[in-house]
Amino acid sequence: MNPIIAATHADPYPYYAQLRAEGGLVFHQGLKLWVASSARAVAAVLAHPHCHVRPSHEPVPKAIAQGMAGKVFGQLIRMNEGERQRCPRAAIEPGLALIDVNEVNALVGARLITPGADGLYAAMFRGPVCVVAALLGFSPAQGRAISELTADFVACLSPLSDQAQLDAAHVAAEQLKGYVIELQDDPSNRSALLAGIRQRFAVTSTDSEILIANLIGLFSQTFEATAGLIGNALLALIRNPQLDSAQVDDLIAEVQRFDPSVQNTRRFVAAPCEIDGVPLNPGDVILVLLASANRDPQLNDDPDTFLLDRPNRRSFTFGAGRHQCPGQVLALSIASATLTEILKMKPALDPLAWHYRPSLNGRIPLFA
Ligand code: HEM
Questions:
Q1: Cβ(225) to ligand 1 under 6 A?
Q2: What domain range includes position 25?
Q3: pLDDT tens per residue across span 160-169
Q4: pTM as predicted
Q5: Cα(72)–Cα(60) distance, rounded to whole angstroms?
Q6: E-assigned strands of 137-263?
Q7: Whose alpha carbon is nearest atom 35 of ligand 1?
Q8: Does the CA dihedral 312-313-318-322 come out positive or negative?
Q9: Which of 119, 153, 173, 254 has minimal Cβ neighbours within 10 Å of its Cβ?
């Protein structure tokens, strides 16, 4: 086991506990990176101004730097610090937090969810992006095309992708850009979310490429993490048949803490600093184990027990600090609505075979 294999291991949590016992922030000789595993170290790393989301010598991964996927990547708030993150974020964040849960329920309810593994796949991997597309004013048919293209585009974010996948990601980025430009030019667009984002964006920037990239970023950020949350909630029901499946919101809230779809993120040290008593140097890489911090008894009482009605639940699943997920409320609403629709079909969950999708940080079951 190592902290990266852990993301898709059957049960990484005893290993995470061992890492925390060895110290919250420790150098891993095999992986040649620092590993933050305690809640205190994770919080400190995510809050530190010198811990950046990209290495300074490689703002865009070399493998994609020459194409459209790299161009989009280089403008995402997720991948930038300073003004290039703060300004577009200030335009995007307020509207995402205000989305009406009834609208999300109606959008999810309007989609046909079919029983069986194919239906689950579509509900997990197509539905959430279609909801975000609809909230921005795209038609259902456009939403379906965008969810397919997003699947291709996100391949550029994973170091596990091969050249064919990276080539497809460039093509998808180009096409996603086309959809977003068309949307902005559409005089009949009635999306309050899009109008708010455009209005706030115009206050600080005239660079339409940044806006386009970050609208595409909403799809790519939604795609795998929300699929994983829905899938891990289904796994919780399979593993614990005694759970009350009527308490869907509570189930989703505890699953995101207990068995998160995003297990880790990374930070790159940009200037000398000291974190949790450990001196760090420029060029150091830190693997931030969000999923381990959630199980730290310093953060949550009795952290290894799955409690639907957990009082004062605390979680790092959506990050913390300046890059904290602005889509958290929306993601939880989409996941709850989707799980509700899936459970209405009374699916036979037991016979489903499944495995985790290969990933260095995502814990996302694929049902077969
Ligand atoms: C269960 C679903 C989701 C999970 C677990 C999740 C988790 C995260 C995490 C951990 C980060 C911070 C990464 C870091 O600091 O290194 C993040 C950032 C982000 N997320 Fe989410 N996310 C989810 C769904 C969504 C959705 C639905 C949206 C929007 C529609 C979204 C939009 C974003 C954006 C734009 C960022 C970048 C923020 C920034 O860097 O300032 N996420 N997300």
A1: yes
A2: 5-367
A3: 999 999 999 9
A4: 0.97
A5: 10
A6: none
A7: 218
A8: positive
A9: 119
